[in-house]
């Protein structure tokens, strides 16, 4: 039977996304088996993240200084801005090692039913960047779902007023995926987005 | 892209059992979105568990005082001891609300290949309890795997010297399970353990 403080720790783990009651119990019991140094290191990491991580004043990405590593990197191409839903999405894009431009973190997608109207997103700061900086292209990299598409459309309309190229990342059959099992919407998109070889 | 302190928190989550790199990243990003109070509460819960949880002097279960809630509960039947591998196993047994005896936590199963010999387990304290207290039955509730069966056999041999009943929880087709898909060992056990209706 779990003691009161153990019960409390299980509750805390249970509050984290994707951690059910059973996983939370397993994690809490694991903490009990960790030594003092390990627990302290974990606690320090939790504290640190809250005290040292803020948002980049340019793009809204998480950063430990006023401007994030990408925005302050002189090698990155400031003429290209890739718009993402949140900081998390930057990780897979960076992993490709193919993109050398900068980012802009919207902090969500337009979803009026959930109360996320355009004014709740970092759209104003994006327009300011485009207006002030020497931007040539804005790549919209949002999930190809209803909210993502709506947001992309909304942004495109706003960005049209500037003399820049607005693009959207391709969507279609995923690499290694199977046409046989792909849904109609994906196949339609793959057909529409076909490129010459 | 993840900052250094975020990277460190991801590493810490990644160290927990069953948390892969991607889940760890999701959890760390979630912590960033938690407010100060929530993070502090989480940290307090982690600290508390390490400072206030010790082991029950009677049964070895986690406890916040010298003796655990179950051992110090006057209503629990001290004449029956249920032997479990670790404290975690007590939770599902308690959930049944069917068992009113006490427990004894072995802290593992005999596994000589992994260096877990009988002297590493809380077997001595179990024998002492049986010798000193007025015990009538010891129920062995260990996983029905190789180590569990070995440990059960070993304990049965030792407990035979006392004038008590030694039982083992039943194993067989799980409730809602399917005979068609059950493995031979489980079916064999289910047949052997058949009861009259």
From TrEMBL, chains A, B:
The keyword Repressor belongs to this UniProt entry's keyword annotation: no
Keywords: DNA damage, DNA recombination, DNA repair, Metal-binding, Zinc, Zinc-finger
GO biological process: DNA recombination; DNA repair
Pfam family, one: RecR_ZnF
Transmembrane region(s): none
Domain of life from the UniProt record: Bacteria
Zinc finger extent (C4-type): 56-71
Claim: Cytoplasm is one of the keywords in the record: no
GO molecular function, one term: DNA binding
Domain annotation Toprim: ranges: 79-174
NCBIfam families registered for this protein in UniProt: recR
Family: Belongs to the RecR family.
Protein task: May play a role in DNA repair. It seems to be involved in an RecBC-independent recombinational process of DNA repair. It may act with RecF and RecO.
Protein name, per record: Recombination protein RecR
Organism: Cetobacterium ceti
Source lineage: Bacteria, Fusobacteriati, Fusobacteriota, Fusobacteriia, Fusobacteriales
Gene field: recR
């Amino acid at each position: 039977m779990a003691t009161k403080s153990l019960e409390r720790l299980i509750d805390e783990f249970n509050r984290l996304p994707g951690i059910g009651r059973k996983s939370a119990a397993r994690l809490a019991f694991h903490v009990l088996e960790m030594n003092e140094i390990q627990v302290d290191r974990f606690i320090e990491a939790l504290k640190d993240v809250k005290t040292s991580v803020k948002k980049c004043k340019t793009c809204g990405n998480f950063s430990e200084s006023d401007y994030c590593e990408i925005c302050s990197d002189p090698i990155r191409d400031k003429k290209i801005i890739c718009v993402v839903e949140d900081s998390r999405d930057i990780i897979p894009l960076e992993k490709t090692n193919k993109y050398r431009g900068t980012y802009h973190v919207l902090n969500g997608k337009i979803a009026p039913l959930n109360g996320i109207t355009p004014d709740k997103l970092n759209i104003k700061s994006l327009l300011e960047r485009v207006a002030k900086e020497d931007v040539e292209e804005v790549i919209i990299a949002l999930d190809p779902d209803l909210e993502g598409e709506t947001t992309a459309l909304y942004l495109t309309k706003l960005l049209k007023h500037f003399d820049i190229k607005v693009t959207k990342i391709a969507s279609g059959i995923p690499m290694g995926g199977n046409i046989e099992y792909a849904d109609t919407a994906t196949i339609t998109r793959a057909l529409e987005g076909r490129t010459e070889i």
